Amino acid sequence: MNRKITFYTIFAWINILLFVLMLLVYNSNGSNRFINQNTVLLNTVLIAISYFVNKDASRQSNPLMAVLLFVMIFHFELRVITLNYFEYSFILDRATVSPNQLNSALLYIIIAYVILWLSLRRTKKDTVREDSSHVVLTKRQTKRILVLLYVCLLLSTAASLGVPGIAQAIGILSTFFFNLEYMMLFALCYFIYNWKNEGLNNKLLFIAFVLLDIVIFTVIGKRGQIYTFAIMLFIVLLVFNYNSLKIKYLVFASCLAPLMVLIFSYATLTRQYGMRSIEVSDAKEMIQIWGEEMGGQDTKIVLAPVFDRIGFLDFSTEMIKNRDYLSKYLNTENYLKSVVDNLLTPGFNLFDMPKMSNVIDKCYEYKGTPNTKYYHLEDGYYQSDCLTLFGEAFLLFGPILALVFVFIIGRLFSRFYFKKRFTHPINIIWIKACSLFLFYILLYSFGLDWFLISLVSFTINYFIFKRIVGIKN
């Protein structure tokens, strides 16, 4: 069980497993209202391309390709199989997508995937000598980080609960200056970098913080908290070039998959019942309701909403198929208004424009100019939908220019990630972790306006974290 296996070997085996599983499911279920034989053929092509991307990523030791590969395997390839098995998609039903329309979108996604892969390949300009020096960090620095993390957890919890009178101020503070998610990423880098030199108490306090974060926000109703942490850990391991896992850790990680499903189901139920409190009595009541609802359901009913939410294929297809309609609402003018309201003037609105990801679901019901009154405040219903990099590029730029945009995005990330830097080794690690995480965010994309907010927030939080820790260039 102490033997190791690389991420790339894991991806290779999962790719083979998905191909076999796809054939078995289609042989058993046949075509349905979303999937037909051509979909299976196209997904076979997608799986084959992932095989070559995997080989290339391993040969080049390219973390950007590894992140892309992860997304394409678990959010696109797997989605074809689950869609064939469950025949449930809120997004595809909303967009009234037929199998042929899904196939057209999938073909376009395959082309964009190949172009993005080629743009991420390391060139001679990208190949730099890595700094292998290691600097021992102090106990005082670790204590500062732990205090910062627990303060961020408190602020983020207060923002999520909507503390009367100061909710707006805390929301801005916890988004732009003390963002829990970004500070956790920086701290994870720090602790892995300095793990051998850390005392037991500090290690336990950090682990306790991670567990508290997952428990609190699951109770509040955030469905992807444990998944987000797993993505962070994967990204940080890539940054450190820890490309292999012990078999026992892989088995443990596999055992967490059912837990993620249960957490997602519980958090979804919490949202449906409008729970915004973390009192013990409320949590007990929710657990009782959740147990009753889960007890009598079969596997399909439990798993279908999970795969529906992580099905980036669905979101991409909607953007491509309904481009003519959605572009009336998700256009350059509204993007700019969203950036002004949500980034440049936080706390008050000039245009009353929500983020574009909040517009998609409601624009099928409400016509006219989007505004916060109709899109998530009047009825208390909040819905944010992914656009994905491929889908959003197609929506904004059309089929040809979108491919050019995707290629430019890939080159920018590649050049920035592999750029040579003369600074403290931990700074390099933080910057690379930011790059990979932002790349992951852009792949599923809640909108370029949301991404720009994330980029600004990441930059501010990076400098705050570095100053508090006391790291200088």
Instruction: Work out the count of structural domains.
Output: 3
Strand content: under 5%
The description of the largest β-sheet is: 2 strands, antiparallel
Strand order of the largest sheet: 1-2
If you compute it from the alpha carbons, what radius of gyration comes out, rounded to the nearest whole angstrom?
22 Å
Q: Supply the helix-strand structural class.
A: mainly alpha
Tell me, briefly, the overall form: globular
**Low-confidence runs:** 272-296
State the total count of DSSP E strands: 2
| Average pLDDT metric | 82
Element order, helices and strands?
EHHHHHHHHHHEHHHHHHHHHHH
Task: Summarize the amount of helix as a percent range.
Answer: over 70%
N-C termini distance: 41 Å
The number of distinct helices, counting runs of at least 4 residues, comes to 21
How would you sum up this structure, described in words?
By secondary structure, the chain is mostly helical. The chain contains 21 helices and two strands. It has three domains: 117 residues; 239 residues, no CATH class; 49 residues, no CATH class. 73% of the residues lie in helices and 1% in strands. A two-stranded antiparallel ribbon has the order 1-2. Helix 8 packs across helix 20 and helix 10 packs across helix 20.
Q: What secondary-structure arrangement, pairings included, does this model have?
A:
Elements: E1 4-6, H1 7-29, H2 37-60, H3 63-86, H4 90-94, H5 99-120, H6 139-161, H7 167-177, H8 180-193, H9 200-220, H10 225-239, E2 244-246, H11 247-272, H12 280-295, H13 299-309, H14 312-321, H15 323-326, H16 332-344, H17 356-363, H18 372-377, H19 389-417, H20 425-444, H21 448-469
Helix pairs in contact: 1-2, 1-3, 2-3, 2-5, 3-13, 3-20, 5-14, 5-19, 6-7, 6-8, 6-9, 8-10, 8-20, 9-11, 10-20, 14-19, 16-21, 19-20, 20-21
